[in-house]
Specification:
The complex is a heterotrimer of chains A (508), B (335) and C (341).
Chain A (H helix, E strand, L loop, with lengths): L7 E10 L2 E11 L4 E5 L6 H8 L7 E6 L2 E3 L4 H7 L1 E4 L11 H6 L5 E2 L2 E2 L1 H14 L15 H15 L3 E5 L7 H16 L3 E5 L3 H7 L2 E6 L2 E7 L5 H9 L4 H8 L6 H4 L3 E10 L3 E9 L3 E5 L6 H9 L6 E6 L2 E3 L4 H6 L2 E4 L3 H5 L6 H13 L7 H14 L16 H13 L5 E5 L7 H16 L3 E5 L3 H7 L2 E6 L2 E7 L6 H10 L4
Parallel strand pairs in A: 3-10, 3-11, 6-9, 9-10, 15-20, 15-21, 18-19, 19-20
Antiparallel strand pairs in A: 1-2, 1-4, 4-5, 7-8, 11-12, 13-14, 13-16, 16-17, 21-22
Chain B lengths: L1 H4 L3 H17 L5 E3 L2 E3 L1 H8 L1 H15 L7 H17 L7 H29 L3 H19 L5 E2 L3 H8 L1 E2 L2 E2 H19 L2 H10 L1 H6 L4 H27 L1 E2 L8 H11 L11 H20 L7 H16 L1 H7 L12
Antiparallel strand pairs in B: 1-2, 3-6, 4-5
Helix pairs in contact in B: 2-14, 3-14, 4-9, 4-12, 4-13, 4-14, 5-6, 5-7, 5-12, 6-7, 6-12, 8-12, 13-14, 14-15
Chain C lengths: L31 H20 L6 H10 L1 H15 L7 H17 L4 H25 L4 H19 L4 E2 L3 H8 L2 E4 L2 E3 L1 H19 L1 H11 L1 H6 L4 H27 L1 E2 L7 H11 L11 H21 L5 H25 L1
Antiparallel strand pairs in C: 1-4, 2-3
Helix pairs in contact in C: 1-13, 1-14, 2-8, 2-13, 3-8, 3-9, 3-11, 3-12, 3-13, 4-5, 4-6, 4-11, 5-6, 5-11, 7-11, 8-9, 9-11, 12-13, 13-14
Classes of the chains: A alpha/beta (508), B mainly alpha (335), C mainly alpha (341).
Chain lengths: 508, 335, 341
């Protein structure tokens, strides 16, 4: 492969935003027939580099060569014409149109200006068949799952230009079998000589599918490596550029001791609680000072379970007791008043209110529980907010900054602060560390451990098994919308053990 | 530079220019006659009362990400109800009866708002469509109430709310000021403003933060209905009759315009009451000034069009970026 | 780091299609509103025939097209705009501007053909201007076309504030011309023009790239842009088209009334929007058909016909019934879209 000439070559790319150098002399090469992972923390410059490639941004320095020739890409359309297609995490198709139209729109086969619908459907079906996808192409795209929508996006991209395909975090919303299917498609395209640029937060996936990787940090090129030559630990080191001190200190706390919770009162008891189509009836008990981890694949019912406990969705069977008393959580407000807090996995859409300030976002839940007639005095607000900005190290430490201008990790901290000031007895956090940089991740994990040490009950939902293992006293495993096993986090429990349960569902 | 960047700078500047033009062209800007204040400034302030009222309600609705197209129809209904009942009175000058009737009319408007709120918050219909229903049907209802006639009333107490004076100041203006103070206290002295902005910013996130968005949403439509009703009373008291065709005709557009001029975005979230009042007074001042400088009143529309275009463009970041490079937006995502 | 995204042993047979169980497709869902409108139309018509003498005569249906020709043409333009997720409040005002200008120019002795071309161009120009402001400066369609409304009506009032009669021979000839359809059934050219407009629009939406781009933008303008579709061109074209249709509606209006007046077409934008909603065109964009909008216009027209036949009903009932229908159809759409999701 090394003997071939690259299909895409970027040299000395520089991109400056007011006050920030987003890319500083970055080189990047992409060869035909390879899957090349672009790695870096949030803010490393991955997205900027991709936006340069897709023509969303114009560069301030350097050059881009496609097939050896210098090109200037001025927009998505031009990028497409030059042979660079992109599939984003949030599928950028028109879901109200049919599958066939989504593949061919803008390029529909025509005769005398009239679209030939029959021919278009036939071609679409053929194209999808090449990706092992057999679906009704005349159905609107919104009747299909996100995974299929993504395949359709890839089919479109590949059909337009088979040279360079950019997959920007395509796997974030897919479950395991869908990821496998996606990888199969990627391998097939690779064999056809397509150059694939792949971005993912999941290291396992990177190692499974990529041939080479390029690491960026703070807008600078750290290096280009063969994936097989670079162990995971070394990769993480290169990405964050510091020793994993924070993470490792937590590592010492792994397999946390149980004694403290032995005599504690149960905060929450669910009996046969369930909701049709979301999660089968389950039993779950959470004690004060205990961290219960929820493990399971995406779509296994993790989030659905958590939402039931917060009253975000209504159960249709079973009963729920809080500190012994049976309760009916009609809506989130009732749950809040009973001392439950819930931070959603969808930070942007279900968490922060981007337009409001950090201060307003932090006091929001507390204010909601007091009702609109009893505002929190401004002095009190400032006091609370300052305290939590310091305690959680929210950066920038400006309470009046619009929260949408903060990084993902800091937004997550704002959300945690929002719930902590309500002094909950049970904190439910769904994927708090997803898509945030390693440093912030460690801080949040540490915070969870401290909270539970302080006596708070925590339900911790995460896709990362290591994280669940590190923090939890007890782990509940979900599979196919069913709670299949509950196990004490004893020293002999490890990731393999949990994965076995997830994979087989059997109760050994 | 920072003053120039304030979204309210240009509207305020235009208002000042209009008032200055007025001061020079009209022979009486502010005078005292018979112990009452008169003059074109007073005309502007008094005349803007219905629009200020409607726009205040509209501001709250828009802050939640909604819109209320039915305000004009509600004005017509409220005026129709009041005039019908007053015309049936034995003594149209009975202050008590007239007050009761006005309360009844506002009560009916409140119900109209409740209907809108229920459609939006409980059935979950898009606000623009939900309120379109009452916008279309409401004027028909008003026509039914008056049986297609224009009902004239001769009630001193009723006329007072539009043309009367209290301590030399026009009553209509006082009502508007009271409403502004009430709404400001209601939203900024309580947490209502924050919760409104939160719901407008992200309904889902607000719900998960424990905010009961439905209640708040219904409430703002009720407030909007009630204020529209009050505006309808002032309008019909001013012409001493109920005219279900022209009462509040197109006022929803002026009100929305006032809100937008005032810097509240149509997608909801942050709102500015001061901005809305500024916008409403600006629209009224424009109408008065156009007449004052001797242009036929029908041409107000043309001037309004120009002002709308100018203001919208001045508030559009894209336009600023294209026309004045130095206003380049700094919020470009840094990834 | 190990994530739980491992392949379960039981899943992932590589050659099977992905998740066939997720293939939930109800082909009829998107047609439900339009079928409901059609059913309503049939019921209303049958009720009319059953209750009123002469209601069953063909002329009732033929006249429906004649009397609603202006609304029909305007609604066609509005359908395009709404399909992209926008709205055009200026159409009624463009009609008044067109009739006033047409009458004035004809009175001034301009050649009819030149007047026709000129007013159609002016309408399109106003539409294009609105589209450009909406697209390039990201001004809300609601606000931009509101400015258009003020502008067009302002121009109309500027030209003349009272009604101007049209005495031009061509206009009069078209106005008085009758097209025989069957024994004793005749219609006017305006109806034919309206129907042709509907047919052309339906064909454009279904069979041309422009038409499909309109739907795509209504589905997601951002996606359309990333897919390389000509979003700017399409969006401006849609408002231009709506302006053109409104001007054409104004010409038809002036033919019908052989006069021009600045208050003609007042509030017609509301009727057009209502017709679209009743006809199943989603105000959020991306879904709906010209044929549905046609049905919507016919439903509102039929209500008026019934009220005229009834004779003793207050005309205010038209608005109330349209309001009730709006409510019913909106709730229906709500239920249908909820099911699809």
């Amino acid at each position: 492969m090394g003997e071939q000439s690259p299909v895409l070559e970027m040299t000395g790319i520089r991109k400056v935003f007011p006050g920030v150098v987003a890319l500083d002399g970055v080189d990047f090469r992409l060869f035909p027939g390879e899957v090349h992972a672009l790695m870096g923390e949030n803010g490393a410059g991955k997205s900027t580099l991709i936006k340069v490639l897709t023509g969303v941004y114009t560069i301030d320095g350097g050059e881009v060569r496609l097939g050896g020739e210098v090109v200037r890409i001025n927009g998505p359309l031009q990028a497409q014409q030059a042979g660079i297609s992109t599939v984003y995490q949030e599928v950028n198709l028109c879901t109200n149109l049919s599958v066939a139209e989504n593949i061919f729109i803008g390029r529909e086969p025509r005769k005398f200006g009239r679209i030939q619908w029959g021919l278009m459907r036939k071609r679409a079906a053929e194209l999808l068949a090449r990706l092992d996808l057999d679906i009704d192409v005349s159905a609107p795209l919104n009747t299909y799952s996100l995974a299929i929508q993504q395949m359709v996006a890839i089919a479109r991209a590949v059909d337009i230009s088979a040279r360079v395909l950019i997959l920007d975090e395509p796997t974030s919303s897919l479950d395991a079998s869908e990821v496998e299917q996606l990888f199969a498609v990627m391998r097939r395209l690779k064999a056809d000589g397509v150059a694939i640029l792949f971005v993912s937060h999941f290291l396992d996936q990177i190692y499974e599918v990529s041939d080479r990787l390029t690491v960026l940090r703070n807008g600078q090129l750290i290096g280009e490596f063969k994936t097989e030559d670079l162990p995971q630990v070394r990769l993480v080191e290169k990405m964050i550029g510091k020793e994993l001190a924070a993470l490792e200190s937590l590592e010492d706390k792994a397999q946390r001791t149980r004694e403290r919770t032995a005599g504690a009162e149960p905060v929450l008891q669910a009996k046969e609680l369930g909701r049709t189509g979301a999660i089968a009836p389950f039993d779950l008990t959470i004690h004060a000072g205990e961290v219960v981890g929820l493990a399971g694949l995406l779509g296994s019912g993790r989030t659905e379970l958590a939402r039931l406990l917060f009253g975000a969705d209504k159960p249709d069977s079973g009963e729920l007791r809080l500190e012994g008393k049976q309760v009916n959580l009609r809506d989130p407000q009732v749950a809040m008043k009973r001392g439950i807090a819930f931070s959603s996995e969808n930070r942007r859409t279900e968490g922060i209110i981007g337009e409001l300030s950090v201060r307003e976002n932090i006091i929001l839940a507390l204010q909601a529980s007091r009702g609109w007639t009893r505002p929190i005095p401004r002095r009190k607000q400032d006091e609370i907010v300052d305290k939590y900005i310091k305690a959680l190290q929210i950066r920038p430490a400006d309470p009046e900054r619009q929260v949408r201008n903060l990084s993902g990790g800091n937004q997550q901290k704002v959300l945690l602060a929002r719930w902590l000031i309500t002094e909950p007895r049970l904190l439910i956090i769904d994927e708090p560390t997803r898509g945030i940089d390693v440093g912030a991740k460690a801080e949040i994990q540490k915070l969870v451990a401290e909270l539970s040490d302080g006596g708070m009950a925590v339900l911790f939902v995460s896709a990362e098994l290591e994280e669940v293992l590190r923090l939890s006293h007890k782990i509940a495993v979900l599979r196919d919308r069913r709670l299949v096993e509950e196990l004490e986090n004893t020293p002999d429990v490890d990731a393999d053990r949990i994965m076995q349960t997830i994979a087989s569902g059997a109760n050994p | 530079m920072t003053i120039l960047k304030n979204r309210l700078f240009w509207p305020a500047a235009i208002l000042v220019v209009l008032l200055v033009v007025n001061a020079f062209t009209s022979n009486q800007f502010v005078t005292v006659r018979d112990g009452h204040l008169f003059g074109s400034l007073i005309d502007i302030l008094r005349g803007s009362a219905p629009l200020v009222l409607v726009a205040l309600g509209m501001t709250l609705v828009i802050a939640t990400g909604g819109i209320d197209l039915s305000v004009g129809s509600v004005m017509a209904i409220s005026g129709a109800v009041a005039c019908l009942l007053i015309s049936d009175l034995g003594d149209q000058n009975s202050v008590g009866s007239v007050l009761l009737i006005m309360l009844a009319a506002i009560g009916v408007s409140l119900l109209a708002g409740l209907w809108n709120g229920a459609l939006v918050a409980i059935i979950g219909i898009q606000p623009i469509i939900a309120t379109l229903i009452l916008m279309v049907a409401g004027r028909g209802i008003a026509q039914l109430i008056t049986d297609g006639q224009i009902i004239n009333v001769q009630s001193g107490p009723y006329a007072t709310i539009a043309t009367g004076f209290f301590l030399a100041i026009p009553v209509a203006f006082l009502i508007a000021v009271a409403a502004v103070v009430l709404i400001t206290l209601l939203t900024r002295r309580t947490a209502l403003g924050l919760l409104l902005e939160s719901v407008g910013g992200s309904p889902t996130a607000s719900r998960l933060a424990g905010i009961r968005a439905k209640r708040i949403t219904v409430m703002v439509y009720v407030v909007s209905g009630a204020f529209a009703g009050l505006a309808g009373l002032i309008y019909s008291a001013n012409i001493k009759s109920a005219d279900s065709i022209s009462a509040g005709n197109l006022i929803e557009l002026d009100a929305i315009l006032a809100v937008v001029i005032g810097g509240t975005a149509l997608i909801g979230g942050r709102f500015s009451i001061a901005g809305t009042v500024l916008g409403a007074v600006l629209i009224q001042a424009l109408g008065v000034t156009v007449v004052a400088i001797g242009v036929p009143s029908d041409l107000t529309l043309l001037f309004k069009a120009i002002v709308v275009v100018a203001l919208c463009l001045s508030q559009s970041p894209e336009f600023r970026a294209k026309v004045f490079g130095r206003f380049k937006t700094r919020t470009e995502a840094i990834a | 780091m190990t994530t739980v995204d491992v392949t379960p042993e039981t899943g992932g047979k590589k050659d099977s299609p992905i998740n066939p169980r997720r293939r939930v497709y109800r082909p009829n869902a998107k047609y439900i509103p339009i079928l409901a409108t059609l059913a309503l139309l049939v019921i209303m018509y049958s009720a009319g025939v059953a209750n009123y003498e002469n209601f069953g005569q063909p002329s009732v249906i033929v006249n429906l097209f004649r009397d609603n020709a202006v609304l029909l043409v305007v609604t066609v333009g509005m359908t395009f705009v709404i399909l992209t997720g926008g709205i055009d409040l200026s159409v009624g005002a463009v009609i008044s501007m067109t009739t006033t200008l047409t009458a004035t120019l004809l009175q001034g002795g301009w050649p009819p053909f030149v007047v026709l071309v000129l007013v159609l161009l002016l309408g399109s120009l106003i539409g294009a201007g609105q589209g450009a402001v909406i697209h390039y400066f990201k001004v809300e369609p609601f606000i931009a076309t509101l400015a258009g409304l003020f502008l067009a009506r302002g121009i109309a009032l500027f030209i003349n504030q009272s009604s101007i009669p049209i005495r031009d021979e061509t206009w009069k000839a078209i106005s008085e011309y009758r097209i025989p359809l069957a024994d004793g059934v005749v219609t006017k050219p305006v109806a034919i023009i309206a129907i042709i407009t509907v047919l052309i629009a339906a064909a454009v939406l279904a069979w041309t790239r422009f038409g499909r781009n309109v739907y795509a933008i209504g589905g997601s303008a951002d996606s359309a842009l990333l897919m390389g579709l000509p979003v700017a061109r399409t969006r401006i074209a849609v408002y231009t088209l709506s302006g053109f249709c409104a001007a054409l509606g104004g010409v038809l209006f002036s033919i019908n009334s052989t006069s021009g007046w600045a208050l003609q077409g007042n509030g017609l934008e509301l009727d057009a929007i209502a017709a679209c909603v009743i006809g199943g065109v989603l105000l959020t964009g991306g879904s709906g058909y010209v044929f549905g909008a046609l049905l919507g216009v016919l439903v509102t027209g039929l209500i008026q016909t019934i009220i005229i036949f009834q004779g003793d009903l207050n005309a205010a009932w038209t608005r109330i019934i349209v309001g009730v229908l709006l409510f019913a159809f909106i709730v229906l759409q709500r239920l249908v879209t909820r099911k699809v999701k």
